[in-house]
TrEMBL record:
Gene3D superfamilies: Mur ligase, C-terminal domain, Mur-like, catalytic domain, NAD(P)-binding Rossmann-like Domain. The gene is murD. InterPro entries: Mur-like_cat_sf, Mur_ligase_C, Mur_ligase_C_dom_sf, Mur_ligase_cen, MurD. Pathway: Cell wall biogenesis; peptidoglycan biosynthesis. One of its GO terms (molecular function) is UDP-N-acetylmuramoylalanine-D-glutamate ligase activity. It comes from Candidatus Schekmanbacteria bacterium RIFCSPLOWO2_12_FULL_38_15. Keywords: ATP-binding, Cell cycle, Cell division, Cell shape, Cell wall biogenesis/degradation, Cytoplasm, Ligase, Nucleotide-binding, Peptidoglycan synthesis. Belongs to the MurCDEF family. Residues 313-423 form the Mur ligase C-terminal domain. This is UDP-N-acetylmuramoylalanine--D-glutamate ligase. It is an enzyme of class 6 (ligase). It comes from the Bacteria. Its EC number is 6.3.2.9. It holds the Pfam family Mur_ligase_C.
């Protein structure tokens, strides 16, 4: 992609917008950045671009900015249906996501991970496995560091391991990973997509440019992915916690195996995987599949899995008090994540749920709540919707804030119970992020006596 001397418009000045602006500026483009927030709100990000030849247009996205524009780079938070993008499409202006923009300047293979849940944990695990095997590897993308930050220095690495959200895949064109992984598909962001079909089609864009020497890794235990007949030239492998897989990773007799090209080898034992929860076992199998394709040896995989610590706020043990265990799964921002969390425990559960609804289908939780949840403690804007969906399946109470939720949960708990924060909702009604919500839960738990 040649951008020198071209006029580029970057929509959205968050982390990805800053990184894309820096990259475009270093490549000699004429760069403009537009964001609907004010200069005061964006002051921190504006400072990051001090010294760069960038013009800012803040407070709105005026369509007059489109005059003479050659390329628009869209940050993940920008929806493709806003007026300026609709106008740009009518004018024939090329629109790409930040991850697509950066990809065009890479010189090394990409391992890309998407799915509804588990992306960050799997990205981190794959990256640590590759590093332990002696590869120069770097974890990027939705995990925290935009791909654009390292696009011009990619030759310093053997692999870039990239977490990719559906938002980032909406505007890809040439994005072609060496290995693509789709961990699972359950309804999420239904406030952005028309339905699960549109959402899943966006996820599937991760493999649409792959070719014969590339690999696609899918979750065989996910019904949508099992039934998928991917239109791709890539070799397709699967992972499963339930079935023996010819090409991919599976569990049998307490051992984990990897099979490929008519050869099967033992990798490690289930007891070597220190991650809690069924979904984390799936994440581990996905990572083993990808890294086995990169020739990481079983001894290395076993060692890393026995020491690996997942990112915070994902099935994170906080404390045990009077025989009650407290688990922080604040990253569980959709119903599918709550399902996996509930399935991970056999002890009675007091579930703290709620927040800002993303048009989730809480009816999906009925059977699990009936069999596993002793009490439901509800917070946030969605509490009445959740209560209505799950009425009659367990006893529920409302809480005013996180401190109140933790207090009421502990009062209802007995020795041997688990108090699980797995909200099934976004955090933005009460907190700035799921991280802030998880910290509030931890703080409330540690304050109990």
């Amino acid at each position: 992609m040649e951008v020198k001397g071209k006029k580029l418009l970057i929509l959205g000045l968050a982390r990805t917008g800053v990184a894309a602006a820096r990259l475009a500026n270093s490549l000699g483009a004429d760069v403009m950045v537009s964001d609907i927030k004010s200069q005061e709100e964006l002051n921190e990000h504006i400072k990051m671009l001090e010294g760069a030849d960038v013009r800012f247009f803040l407070g709105s996205h005026p369509e007059s900015l489109l005059k003479g524009i050659d390329l628009i780079v869209v940050s993940p938070g920008i929806q493709g249906t806003i007026p300026i993008l609709l106008k740009a499409r009518n004018m024939g202006i090329k629109i790409v996501s930040e991850i697509e923009f950066a990809y065009n300047f890479l010189q090394v293979p990409v391992i890309a991970i998407t799915g509804t849940n588990g992306k960050t944990t799997t990205t981190k695990l794959i990256n640590e496995l590759l590093i332990a095997a002696g590869y120069r590897s770097l974890g990027l993308g939705n995990i925290g560091t935009p791909l654009s930050e390292f696009a011009l220095n990619s030759q310093e690495y053997d692999y870039l391991v990239v977490e990719v959200s559906s938002f980032q895949l909406e505007e890809v064109v040439n994005f072609k990973p060496f290995i693509s992984l789709i961990l699972n598909i359950t309804p999420d962001h239904m406030d952005r997509y028309k339905g699960i079909e549109e959402y899943s089609r966006t996820k599937y864009r991760i493999f649409e440019k792959q070719k014969k020497k590339d690999f696609l890794v899918l979750n065989y235990d996910d019904l949508m992915l099992r039934k998928l007949s991917p239109q791709t030239g890539a070799s397709v492998l699967y992972f499963s916690t339930k079935e023996v897989i010819n090409n991919g990773c599976f569990v049998k007799g307490g051992e984990i195996f990897f099979g490929f090209q008519n050869s099967v080898k033992a990798v490690c034992s289930l007891c070597d995987v220190k991650l809690e929860g069924l979904h984390n076992l799936e994440n581990a199998l996905a990572a083993i599949t990808a890294c086995s394709l990169c020739h990481v040896e079983p001894e290395t995989i076993k060692k890393v899995l026995s020491e690996f610590k997942p990112p915070s706020h994902r099935i994170e043990f906080v404390r045990e008090l009077n025989g009650v265990r407290f688990i922080n799964d604040s990253k569980g921002t959709n119903v599918g994540a709550v399902v996996k969390s509930l399935m991970s425990y056999s002890s009675p559960i007091i579930l703290i749920a709620g927040g800002r609804d993303k048009k989730g289908d809480f009816d999906m939780l009925r059977d699990l709540v009936k069999s596993k949840v002793k009490k439901l403690v509800l917070i946030g804007e969605a509490k009445e919707k959740i209560k209505k969906s799950l009425n009659g399946f367990t006893h529920s109470i409302n809480a005013s804030d996180m401190n109140d939720a933790v207090k009421k949960s502990f009062e209802a708990a007995s020795s041997g119970d688990i108090i699980l924060l797995s909200p099934g909702c976004a955090s933005f009604d009460m907190f700035n992020s799921y991280e802030e919500r998880g910290v509030a839960f931890r703080r409330a738990v540690m304050g109990l006596k």
